Amino acid sequence: MLTKIVQSILVASAFMIPVIGHFAINNDTIFQNENRNAFAYPQDYHDKYWDELQKAHNDRLVGRETFQVLTSTYLSNICSQTTDFSYKDAFAFKGNSMGWFYLGDEGRKYYQQHILPVKQKDIFYEKNLSLLKHLELIAPNNTYMVVGPDKASVYPEFMNQHIGYPGKYRHFENIKADLEKAGVKVIDNQEAIVKEKDLTYEKSLYFANDSHWNKKGALFAFNNTIKELLGDEFTPLTYDFTWKKLMVGDLNKSQYISELKQILDLCEPVSKENSEVTSIDLEDNTQETGIRQFGSDDFIRCNVNSGTCNYEKIINSRSRKDLKVALISDSFGGFFEPYLVDYFKEVLWCNAYEDHTKILKYVSEFQPDIILYLRIERSI
Fold it and tell me: Tell me: the pLDDT tens digits for 171-201?
């Protein structure tokens, strides 16, 4: 008798546990140790219908979510001892079938800024705002906060669709409103870049396994930025580009990348125009003069990525506009600066990570007509 009772309970549980779960768990449920939403029920029949139906069914087993939370810390500790897996950084643990990778959440919630309504400001917001206010005193009415959009702002469709709601939220919209309320002129390049996306995805404006825009993405940002500054006086720069696949990046250096779809994301502008330029390292007062092809990095020696120097002035003998422009930037300025050198008479570049007092000193001595403070949106 007892055996039959136990059997009946087990059989009933086999049916009731999923049934209860189907009412108790919805598509918004996030499984903490997998950093994803519960799989949704498939809406129509396709090749993966039964696979997705099974995943949705399994996600709704009563107790699964609780069990995963209880075991996540234990499992992550084991994984971290034997692999490079980081539980806290799980949002960027792996890419997708197209070979796209995104920054994770360890430390500053990068990924979540584009999938959840994040409210807190970046830890450097007040410092950025203070620098902008001091720069405004040097070039009144001609100082601008220039935004380099996150890759997640431009290509949310490649983010993991089972982690929150990719592309639904953009935390920078809140920051932008605060900056403008504080009197800062903001040039946001997101829409200008999104408008130029290749929807066949054969060529990209951002690197697939790196967090930066490439030189074509930077060109669209440059044209949009200078159009905002000069209006109808500005004629956009145009170049042909050579294309190939970037095989290494700052997000994933695995050879697994080479097996995925060959999205072309590494490009170089091609131009027959050139001019004589003089590059001056302002800290040690060394300089170099030579013939530079427009669009290239020739004779631009200083940027955040190279680490060779932190303050550089470049004089162009054949500019389109006889103005002096100061660019204070992070690594997104590396591909943006060459176009400034193509267009303007003199360009000062300052490393945004340097001491702000020192930055203000060099900018003040340069006496620019225009100041651009270019930062990636996640760091503003």
Answer: 999 999 999 999 999 999 999 999 999 999 9
pLDDT surpassing 60 at residue 87: no
Whole-number Cα distances in Å, 132 to 201, 272, 336? 37, 37, 19
188/190 Cα distance (integer angstroms): 6
Predicted TM-score (pTM) above 0.85: no
DSSP character for 70?
Answer: H
**Cβ-count burial 358-372 (b if 16+ within 10 Å, e if not):** ebbebbeebebbbbb
CA distance 216 to 193: 10
Residue 233 carries which DSSP code? G
Residue where the block lists tokens 């920054």: 103
**Does the pLDDT at position 235 exceed 90?**
yes
For 195-227, how does the pLDDT look when each residue is reduced to its tens digit (9 = 90+)? 999 999 999 999 988 899 999 999 999 999 999
What is the CB neighbour count within 10 angstroms for residue 44? 5
Edge-to-edge strands of the sheet including 321-329?
A: 185-188, 143-148, 370-376, 321-329, 344-351, 311-316, 274-281, 286-293
Distance CA 372, CA 380 (A): 14
Q: Measure the CA–CA gap between 4 and 16, rounded to whole angstroms.
A: 18
